Amino acid sequence: MIKTEMLRVFVEVARAGNLVSAAESLGRAPSAVSMTLKQLEAHLGQPLFESERKSRLTALGTYVFEMSNRELAHFDRTITALTDFASARRGEVRIAVVPSFAMTILPELVLEFTAASPNVRLDIRDMDSASIQRELERERIDLGIVSDARQTAEVRLVELASDHFGVVMRADNQLAKRKKISWQALARAGLIANPLCERIDEPELHGALERAHLRVHNTTTLLTMVRAGLGVTLLPELVCRQADSRITFRELASPVAHRRIDLISRARDTPSPATSAFAEFLTARMAERTNLSR
């Protein structure tokens, strides 16, 4: 059986043109190199060199040299790729993210991660939390960053941050003169409903949501509606960091409503090394942000 090491020894001798120089390069004794060459020639049934000086290749030797160079280079690339994948230096991570996180915090995290892991490809898409959970269950993504994830036996959940809700309105709205907005005032302000605020368990809000004439799913469209003066809405503060000066954010009076930002993955699957590396990086960086804000 021809071993990879035999081909490496032969290629080194063919390049050096003599046993002594090849042995020094390989860090082996000349006698060990000579024995390895004889084993290779015995397997092939013909000599690889024209003389014992190893300075000229036979026709077979020339062919074996060319083939060995090519196959050893391919083998080395394969080993490097396998090692890089196992050590998270190579691979692909498919991530789905809620828009508020994608447009504010995520870019700087991606910049740092890709600088440290340039051969890891990040496939990022933004969508609402419910769609992210469905994509995760269908195995179309590896990680999801969502609002208030549902804990199930199929989902592994890590809390990344917490964000409080407030009233989002045009800067020239009368309510913008107040530092905090009561639930009663909000109910009279012409609320535009959205999936995020519908998760808030506050009796004062329920009636306002039932009376809402508009319900908008997409965050960009929702902010456009607010900017056009069609009403006010309730959103986490993080969402408003992407808004322009025509829109303002005001805190709610007690009780204050919050939403969690969670990292989710499939609980029953072993993630790829690159996926694990990105998840660990994201969790660590978000924990640092939380500690700094305290």
Strands, helices and their partners?
Blueprint: H1 4-16, H2 19-26, H3 30-44, H4 59-86, E1 91-97, H5 99-102, H6 106-116, E2 120-126, H7 129-137, E3 143-147, E4 155-170, E5 180-181, H8 183-187, E6 192-193, H9 203-211, E7 214-215, H10 219-227, E8 233-236, E9 247-252, E10 258-266, H11 273-293
Parallel strand pairs: 1-2, 1-3, 5-9, 6-7
Antiparallel strand pairs: 3-10, 4-8, 4-9, 4-10
Notes on the protein architecture:
The protein has about 290 residues and is α/β, with parallel strands linked by helices. It folds into 3 domains: about 5-85, Arc Repressor Mutant, subunit A, CATH 1.10.10.10; about 90-160 and about 260-294, Periplasmic binding protein-like II (D-Maltodextrin-Binding Protein, domain 2), CATH 3.40.190.10; about 165-260, Periplasmic binding protein-like II (D-Maltodextrin-Binding Protein, domain 2, 3-Layer(aba) Sandwich), CATH 3.40.190.10. It is built from 11 helices and 10 strands. It has helices at about 5-15, 20-25, 30-45, 60-85, 100, 105-115, 130-135, 185, 205-210, 220-225, 275-294, and strands at about 90-95, 120-125, 145, 155-170, 180, 190-195, 215, 235, 245-250, 260-265. Strands 1, 2, 3, 4, 5, 8, 9 and 10 form an 8-stranded mixed beta sheet that branches. The radius of gyration is 32 Å and the shape is rod-shaped. GO terms for molecular function: DNA binding; DNA-binding transcription factor activity.
